[in-house]
Design brief:
- It is found in: Periplasm.
- The longest helix has 20 residues, at about 220-240.
- α3 packs parallel to α5 (about 130-145), α5 (about 130-145) packs antiparallel against α6 and α9 packs antiparallel against α10 (about 250-265).
- About 25% of the residues lie in helices and about 25% in strands.
- By secondary structure, it is α+β, with helices and mostly antiparallel strands.
- Strands 11, 12, 13, 14, 16, 17, 18, 19 and 26 form a nine-stranded antiparallel β-sheet that branches. Strands 5-6-7-8-9 form a five-stranded antiparallel β-sheet, with no helix packed on it.
- The protein has a domain at about 290-520: Beta-galactosidase, Chain A, domain 5.
- It is elongated and about 80 Å long.
Length: about 550
């Protein structure tokens, strides 16, 4: 029995026909078993009743004899959580705090059965995938604080050998960090210096690969910056619990991430739904940047008019390295939030299942991007920020790439004195069209003469499109909502859910200027040469087209 465990009584339990030697009626809390790595659901009472609820999906009754090949929702994420055994770890943690020996007995029974039924290379299909292995290791280490049996020690040794094998390791990814946390936990539990050194060495490398020197996560989804920040704190706590010093690079990157998370958070408190991130992620309050506009080399521009003001305007622009990890093909895409509402949003994140809908959510057609008519899209192409101008009340940026085999360029100007977003799309050859995904809360009130008016109750906003050169209204916009063949006009605001939402599809033109004007259905737009004047209800906004840029 470990020295940190206080024995206050020993008795005999009969459970499922097996004779089990009971552990202490009350046990000291251990670092391995306590902490927020434990899931909130299912509760220990649910687990004891055989009801497992993961990912906000309806609970599944597993019974006393668990079928480890169970996959009721045909969902990889459900399988991952199931085989992580963290729900088993919940029982051990609650045993430590309540002294209920039945919790420990059931946890032991579940883990022992899992080990027997899922040998490496056998058992359930997903049992030994890299992420379940990483997340399961801490749960088994926790159990080992109260169960010294050989089968558990042998299984933990097997887990450590797999986690230590770089062939299975996810470099520069949140999974890699989880793998190192799992390996370090086993190494510290059994004082294996080689595994301990390897885990910390890889942690540092993976963290500096995944979080750049600006504090931006390179996984191309701000949602995962929140996860990585949480897990990095767990990693640093684990290092301290092991009696070691936290490497400076880990602490530095952990300190930098909060400002990136805050920059990616809209004025309503929710993360902007970029990449594999639904619109319902509301991070805790983090340190924020001093500036109102942030430009990250990892491929993000975030800007707002004020901090701590729900009515603030907010926008995002995507560019940078080609598709990786949790990213989508959203380069040159924008989002826009103004006057307390989402106007331009993204199709969002539904799930990781390989379905036609999931595949569509990753495509350019699920984002607010320019599309080169008649040209084939090439995935994974990087894009470049070629120009930026950041003023107090106005910012402009130009981004470009060759994802369609010809150069497409998008200039974005955001005016804040009078809320206006202007987007200028050009291509080096052919014609361009664009897509504008509207928040599900917005309804299309009218569509005529190159102007689409949307409403939210009495509130109005306008999307005006002009063909260039000539600055003439271009009509023929098509509104698509809830289409399934092909998919278009959907928003996934939360996991495994989707709802119909309107998308404005423009006609094709040699160049398109799109004006998004919140707060009015009657914007007066005029052009004088290459100067554009947008008269809003709060006054005029004036800007110029300079080549392919907006100034």
């Amino acid at each position: 029995m470990p020295g940190r465990t206080r024995v206050v009584g020993v008795f005999i339990l009969f459970l499922a026909g097996s004779l089990l030697t009971a552990r202490p009626a009350y046990a000291a809390r251990t670092a391995e078993c306590q902490g927020d790595w434990l899931p909130a659901t299912p509760t220990s009472e649910d687990v004891m009743a055989g009801k497992l609820s993961f990912l906000d999906l309806p609970a599944v009754q597993v019974g006393e004899k668990v079928n480890w090949k169970l996959n009721p929702y045909k969902n990889r994420s459900w399988q991952m959580v199931f085989h992580s055994l963290r729900w088993m770890g919940r029982l051990v943690a609650d045993f430590e705090t309540t002294g209920k020996a039945a919790y420990l007995a059931r946890a032991t029974e579940v883990a022992k059965d899992w080990v027997a039924k899922n040998p490496p290379g056998g058992g359930a299909d997903y049992a030994w995938a890299e992420h379940p292995v990483a997340l399961r290791a801490p749960a088994l280490v926790c159990l080992s604080r109260h169960v010294p049996d050989k089968w558990l020690r042998d299984s933990l040794s097997q887990h450590a050998r797999i986690l230590a094998n770089d062939k299975h390791y996810e470099w520069g990814h949140n999974h890699g960090l989880d793998q190192d946390i799992g390996l370090l936990g086993i190494a510290c539990r059994y004082d294996n210096k080689a595994w301990r050194s390897q885990a910390i060495r890889r942690m540092v490398k993976t963290t500096t690969l995944d979080v750049d020197s600006q504090g931006a996560l390179r996984e191309q989804a701000p949602r995962y910056a929140v996860y990585f920040h949480d897990r990095l704190r767990v990693a640093m706590d684990k290092i301290k619990d092991c009696g070691l010093k936290v490497p400076a690079d880990l602490a530095k990157r952990w300190d930098l991430l909060p400002e990136h998370i805050s920059a990616a958070t809209q004025p309503d408190g929710y993360l902007v739904p970029i990449g594999d991130g639904p619109a319902d992620v509301q991070p805790a309050a983090f340190d924020r940047p001093d500036s109102l506009v942030q430009v990250y080399r990892a491929g993000y521009v975030f800007g707002r008019t004020k901090w701590d003001f729900k009515e603030s305007a907010y926008y995002s622009i995507r560019y940078g390295p080609g598709l990786k990890f949790h990213g989508h093909e959203d380069h040159l895409g924008v989002t826009y939030y103004a006057q307390g509402r989402n106007l331009l949003t993204e199709a969002g994140f539904h799930s990781y299942e390989n379905t036609p809908y999931r595949r569509w959510t990753i495509t350019p057609e699920a984002h607010n991007v320019p599309i080169v008519s008649g040209k084939r899209f090439r995935g994974g192409v990087a894009s470049t920020l070629t120009k930026k101008s950041i003023g107090k009340d106005r910012q402009s940026f130009t981004v470009t790439d060759t994802a369609y085999g010809t150069r497409r360029t998008r200039a974005v100007l955001v005016n804040h004195d009078e809320d206006v977003m202007a987007v200028y799309d050009t291509v080096s050859s052919g014609k361009v069209r664009n897509l504008w995904h509207l928040s599900p809360s917005l309804k299309v009130a009218s569509n005529a003469g190159g102007k689409v008016v949307v409403s939210d109750g009495a509130w109005r906003a306008s999307i005006v499109q002009l063909a260039l050169p000539g600055c003439k209204p271009v009509g023929g916009q098509k509104i698509v909502r809830g289409q399934t063949s092909p998919y278009q006009g959907w928003i996934s605001g939360s996991y495994m859910k989707k709802e119909a939402a309107s998308v404005v599809q423009s006609p094709s033109a040699k160049a398109l200027l799109t004006l998004v004007v919140p707060g009015t259905d009657q914007p007066d737009v005029s052009c004088s040469g290459r100067t554009v004047i947008v008269r809003t209800s709060n006054g005029p906004a004036t800007f110029k087209m300079s080549g392919k840029d907006l100034v």
